[in-house]
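Private note to self, pasted from the team thread so I don't lose it. Backbone tokens:
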């Protein structure tokens, strides 16, 4: 949906960005540029800056940036139109009734519809004769009919193009299907179904739209699971399988497992708070999402080394949220599915109730590696345990474990204490150093999230380009004043050339330069880049002299960058240069 500039300006004028952001994270500091801990990435020192003058924000830590609309889009996981509607409701602004449809919203809607149609198709295939193997698999895994219906499971036939053919009759083009990752382009330029001969698990968003699929093989072929790649409606790092069902439970607890089948088994057995990641390691975005729906997370990973590592990773990521982590120790089976099948739901409930906190889990795990009956084993376990205890920030908690450990191993408590304190100091120093280095990098502008692919190659020129663009945004009169020296061609990097063109086009149409003025032309990183330019305003000399200096620096840098490539020299220059080389070589051969 497209909105008029007047409407957007009116909407923006009713929003105080600081107040808006303060609803999600504590804003520190006052004045024109307050700071806060970034709500989009986990951090201990604030790198998220709010620019009240132009009502935008930029995070120097992760590169997130934009204005009120972008902020709501990202934090509430909405599309552009939905974010505008959200802000309209909050500010009592009437939502425009006759808008021109926005291209992106249209594309997203098409994608939802195609996915829903595909899910229906896969589901219908499941009852046809050729899905015998898929049905047997479901039966053998003990899935009931209503479970299959609830999760919308289906079957992708063993054919190259049955889904493509079906969706063509519904009006979708091959190109669309490739964009939605329902089809793949072959080397010869043809088009084949992305999922073939697989059991299909549709993935839903929180509103129940089908946003992607996971497909499992029915034999031993590889890969065992195939998942939709990121599309206009799906980012796998930001989604969780079955959260649409699990979020409705009301005991503030979620269970995080490894795979689709674990989740489905748990739900069928009555544990409807189960969710799973989607073929990626646990991400900070997923942690944020979970923290909105639970206070306690039971991590239910496989009981092997990889599962332990994954649990540790989850703890790290969750450490900046309020979510309490407990680790489920699988006994009698490798995963929830196996345990429920072998022993029934009661046993699973006991295991879940017996979930330990992550310190206990890590200690148990360390202990299992050693024979603590021998003194070598004792020392080995103690060394690992000390590292685990040193990582506990709470002194009282730490003391409790030290007491337990010394009693368990029959070692003097003081001795354990000394070791733990030493290790904790080492940890602190490491952490302080990391925080310090991060801060220094921020100051130097080295935490780089630039979408400009040439930034590393032409550091100085890019810097001049960015200052030029930023100065131009805050002084649109320069466009006229420096008319004879300004054009897209003065830019060295293609990226900034494009940004310059976009900005000047908007200026000529008297559209204000705000991050979300560019939703049609730029992706998320591009929009954040615009906010970065707006943020630069703080550092810009406001004089025309400074502007002229940026122009000179850029011209000089561009000339330098063009020189060494001999192919760009004219024939005469090229010959002259060869002659020069001969002279310095002392006449050559
Ligand atoms: Zn950030």
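Design output:
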């Amino acid at each position: 949906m497209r909105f008029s500039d007047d409407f957007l300006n009116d909407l923006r004028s009713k929003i105080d960005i600081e107040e808006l952001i303060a609803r999600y994270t504590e804003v520190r500091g006052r004045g024109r540029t307050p700071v806060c801990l970034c709500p989009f990435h986990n951090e201990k020192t604030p790198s998220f800056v709010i620019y009240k003058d132009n009502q935008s924000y930029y995070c120097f830590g992760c590169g997130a940036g934009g204005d009120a609309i972008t902020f709501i889009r990202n934090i509430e996981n909405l599309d552009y139109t939905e974010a505008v509607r959200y802000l309209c409701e909050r500010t009592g602004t009437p939502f425009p009734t006759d808008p021109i449809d926005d291209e992106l919203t249209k594309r997203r809607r098409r994608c939802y519809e195609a996915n829903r149609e595909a899910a229906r198709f896969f589901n219908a295939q499941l009852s046809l004769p050729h899905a015998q193997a898929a049905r047997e698999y479901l039966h053998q895994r003990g899935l009931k009919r209503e479970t299959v219906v609830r999760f919308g499971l289906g079957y992708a036939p063993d054919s190259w193009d049955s889904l493509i053919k079906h969706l063509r009759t519904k009006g979708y083009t091959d190109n669309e299907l490739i964009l939605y990752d329902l089809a793949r382009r072959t080397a010869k330029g043809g088009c084949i179904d992305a999922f073939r001969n697989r059991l299909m698990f549709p993935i839903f968003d929180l509103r129940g739209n089908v946003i992607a699929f996971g497909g499992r093989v029915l034999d031993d072929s590889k890969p065992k699971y195939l998942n939709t790649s990121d599309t206009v409606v799906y980012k796998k790092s930001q989604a969780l399988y079955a959260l649409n069902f699990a979020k409705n439970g009301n005991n503030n607890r979620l269970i995080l497992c490894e795979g689709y089948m674990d989740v489905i088994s748990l739900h069928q057995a009555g544990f409807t708070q189960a969710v799973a990641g989607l073929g990626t390691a646990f991400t900070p975005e997923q942690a944020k999402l979970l923290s909105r729906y639970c206070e306690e997370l039971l991590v239910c990973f496989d009981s092997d080394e990889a599962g332990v590592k994954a649990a540790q990773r989850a703890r790290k990521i969750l450490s900046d949220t309020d979510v309490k982590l407990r680790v489920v120790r699988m006994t009698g089976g490798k995963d929830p599915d196996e345990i429920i099948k072998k022993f029934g739901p009661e046993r699973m409930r006991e295991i879940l109730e017996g979930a330990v906190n992550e310190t206990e889990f890590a200690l148990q795990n360390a202990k299992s590696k050693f024979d603590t009956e021998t003194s070598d084993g004792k020392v080995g376990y103690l060394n690992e345990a000390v590292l685990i205890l040193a990582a506990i920030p709470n002194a009282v908690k730490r003391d409790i474990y030290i007491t337990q450990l010394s009693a368990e191993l029959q070692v003097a408590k003081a001795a354990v204490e000394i070791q733990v304190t030493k290790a904790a100091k080492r940890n602190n120093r490491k952490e302080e150093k990391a925080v310090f280095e991060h801060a220094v990098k921020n100051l130097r502008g080295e935490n780089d999230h630039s979408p400009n692919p040439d930034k590393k190659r032409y550091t100085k020129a890019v810097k001049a380009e960015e200052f030029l663009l930023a100065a131009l945004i805050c002084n649109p009169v320069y466009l006229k004043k420096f008319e004879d020296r300004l054009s897209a061609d003065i830019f060295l990097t293609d990226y900034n050339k494009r940004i310059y063109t976009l900005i000047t086009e908007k200026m000529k149409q008297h559209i204000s330069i705000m991050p979300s003025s560019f939703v049609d032309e730029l992706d998320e990183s591009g929009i954040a880049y615009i906010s970065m330019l707006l943020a630069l305003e703080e550092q810009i000399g406001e004089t025309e002299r400074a502007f002229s200096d940026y122009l000179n620096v850029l011209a000089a840098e561009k000339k330098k960058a063009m020189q060494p490539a001999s192919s760009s020299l004219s024939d005469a220059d090229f010959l002259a240069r060869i002659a020069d080389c001969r002279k310095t070589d002392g006449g050559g051969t």
